[in-house]
Amino acid sequence: MKHIDVVVIGAGPTGCTLAAELATAGRSVTVLDKRPAPSPLSRAFGVHARTLELLDARGLADQLVATGAPSTGLKLWHGAALNLGRLDSRFQFVLVTPQRNVDALLEARARERGADIVRGFTVTGVDQDRDGVRVRGHDSSGEEVTFHATYAVGADGAHSAVRTMIGQPFPGQAVLRSIMLADVELANPPDNLVTVNAVRDGFAFIAPYGDNLFRVIAWNRRHQVDDSAPVDREELRATIRTAMGTDYGLGDVRWQSRFHSDERQVPQYRTGRVFLAGDAAHVHSPAGGQGMNTGIQDAVNLGWKLAAVLGGADESVLDTYHSERHPVGRLVLRSSGATMRMMTVRPWILRKLRNVAVSALLGSPPIGDAVARMFSGIGIGYGHRTGENALVGRRVEDLPTDAGRLYEVMRSGGFVLVAESGAPGPAEIHAVTRTDAGPALLVRPDGYIAWAGDSASGEWRGVLDRWTARTSNGAHAVSP
Questions:
Q1: CA gap 176, 238 in Å, rounded
Q2: Is the overall model pTM greater than 0.90, yes or no?
Q3: Which domains, ranges and CATH numbers included, belong to the chain?
Q4: pLDDT digits (tens, 9 = 90+) for 184-240
Q5: Which of 49, 64, 111, 333 has the fewest CB atoms lying closer than 10 Å?
């Protein structure tokens, strides 16, 4: 039986991102997916600034941006708007592009980096002991196959088989049912912004793909049917008109589907040697378009930590995946749920208050900018321990360095030490010198700050050891 460092179950954006991270770090990884081929259809379509930054640090962002339509803001109800144009990021927009474009890019990178992707494989069992994980299943011919790995990751979606097999509950609740989803042509489209409006009996959400093609999400309170029911064109037209005051000249409906929305999250992202990521770990309402983005960010967080521990770092490093990402998943679940409930509020007086409050709050630059930072993901951090610099745990900005933009520097992988302007970088680590003012920074592979201070003090070495050093060398465990 061939031994693999990591088996990933699920070849969607989360699974392929993780596979590429591991393969880039020199770890053997096999991805198993029950689908015989990538799905050309999906609900996800928005790629936020933080996700684009992570892709930029892997040399992929510009290629993905070329496939879609950047939207510099969201046009909301009654004149309210969320402005992304002031984000402190190279990507001052949400990229509207079909998930199939994201999937194709990430799978190609995983394969190019050396990951083995096996399609048409159904996982039937996941067992673990102190020596590793056994993943059992059968291929498309029915042949039984067992993979043995040091770790396994379930990235197999909202209906995760891995989650069930390891006994993780998925507590939560249903939010909305019978949500319509369609790709349409519009003769008289709105401005080139994501446009949302909500009224008493429903809402509509329109996002431009480019080339006169638009993604529509719509919900009619008065017409609730099973997910399997087809979306009638006239039903879609009427719901858009009710919510928006116009149907924007609805033309051809290229594709349509119907789905329901849940809010759920597993209590633990780690169960021994098995981890859950993406929709297998958390699902939430479509408000904010966070699902795919959160999954990709889960994978980037987990990937370098698995690689570090496989290289001899202390096992406690893996516990920080849960301690860092579970609160983010909970935040996304709560914020998207609150947004959805705000959109579907029914009493007239509450809708009036909503319209006035949202317009006033987003119209105030400090508040509007703070909301934009959280919506885009660039405002999310992981916190720091008592006594650490306040910058620790924050997203690192795309700083100017003597070797170019920092995110370009990060494409080599691994930790990067950014020395102060004028300070020499030590030879024992990939080091560059910032050309602006500010302290030295030790940057993690996922683009978050591990340490900040005076590089000459050498304190960064102890922090690097805590994250990466072999336990036999006396490295300290990392506190979750």
A1: 19
A2: yes
A3: 3-40+99-170+266-341 (3.50.50.60), 172-263 (3.30.70.2450), 400-473 (3.40.30.120)
A4: 999 999 876 899 999 999 999 999 987 789 999 999 999 999 989 999 999 999 999
A5: 111
